[in-house]
Design goal:
Protein name: 3-keto-5-aminohexanoate cleavage protein
Largest sheet: 8 strands, parallel, barrel
Cofactor: Zn(2+)
Number of domains: 1
CATH class: Alpha Beta
Pfam families: BKACE (PF05853)
Distance between the termini: 28 Å
Strand order of the largest sheet: 1-2-5-6-9-10-11-12
InterPro entries: Aldolase_TIM, BKACE
GO molecular function: 3-keto-5-aminohexanoate cleavage activity; metal ion binding
Radius of gyration: 17 Å
């Protein structure tokens, strides 16, 4: 199998560092440094949140702007993807950074349960976020927590609310949402291929399931996501020392399955994004 595999690194989670892994980057400068190392290890997309001074998630466009500036300087050509998820704000403030024109932004097109709350994505907010992405030429990454989200994304693609080639990420292993189930995973792929034949797909496995999803994706010709946002361990007993270590682990899997790791140029070509001078 020779199709290049795009590795996305999700650099920081939502838990305070003291309750997570000391390696999780919190400040903008830490995030830039961690992403640069991950970029050099093979990641071609960075999925990013920003934090307040007390380490809580933030929707501050100024911090996103400083992060984008640092990433463009130190990781030239890397695809910058900002999160519009519900952890960093409510309502339209979740999309306040889209006007900064990152290459991509995450888009959840439906609601689902999280461990202790409902992750709300009402139709009017989904439509507004998609509209902002169209206005600012930002490519959505569909975060599919449920089969219905794949169907909704395909419908939005057909009617023009999400233009161009879809990029769909299956999110599996969130407590109270879709578990890591191989039959479901295979059906997700089948559904994407049926509803949007030209789409690209990837997956994120949460916690202990990250490596499992990395292997499923890479072995079946998809793309994959890794990083300290989703998982803080290299194995059951060892904290991951960095985002770069998790990227290297995914890159090693690519070698095992004879998949080249996509360069940033190849990743942009696969996703239909414009090239940028390195």
């Amino acid at each position: 199998m020779s199709k290049p595999c795009i590795i996305c690194v999700a650099i920081t989670g939502s838990l305070p560092r003291k309750e997570n892994n000391p390696a999780v980057p919190i400040t903008v400068s830490e995030q830039v440094e961690s992403t640069q190392a991950a970029f050099e290890a093979g990641a071609s997309i960075v999925h990013a949140h920003v934090r307040n001074d007390d380490e809580t998630p933030s929707s501050d466009p100024e911090k996103f702007a400083r992060l984008k500036e640092g990433l463009e300087k130190h990781c030239p050509g890397m695809i910058i993807q900002f999160s519009t998820g519900g952890r960093s704000g409510a309502g339209k403030e979740r999309g306040g950074m889209i006007a900064l024109k990152p290459d991509m932004a995450s888009l959840s097109v439906g609601s689902n349960n999280f461990p202790t709350r409902v992750y709300e994505n009402p139709p009017d907010l989904v439509d507004w976020l998609a509209s902002e992405m169209r206005t600012h030429h930002v490519k959505p990454e569909i975060e599919a927590f449920d089969l219905s989200h794949i169907h909704q994304a395909a419908a939005m693609n057909r009617d023009g609310r999400i233009p161009g080639k879809l990029y769909v990420q299956f999110v599996m292993g969130v407590k109270n949402a879709m578990p890591v189930d191989r039959d479901v995973f295979d059906y997700y792929i089948k559904t994407v291929e049926r509803l949007a034949p030209d789409a690209e797909w990837c997956a994120a496995g949460i916690g202990q399931h990250q490596f499992t999803l990395n292997e499923w994706c890479i072995s079946l010709g998809g793309h994959t996501r890794t990083g300290l946002e989703d998982n803080i361990r290299l194995d059951r007993d060892t904290l991951a020392p960095s985002n770069a270590a998790l990227v290297k682990r995914a890159a090693d899997l690519c070698d095992t399955y004879e998949r080249p790791v996509a360069t940033w140029q190849q990743a942009r070509e696969i996703l239909g994004l414009p090239l940028k001078a390195a």
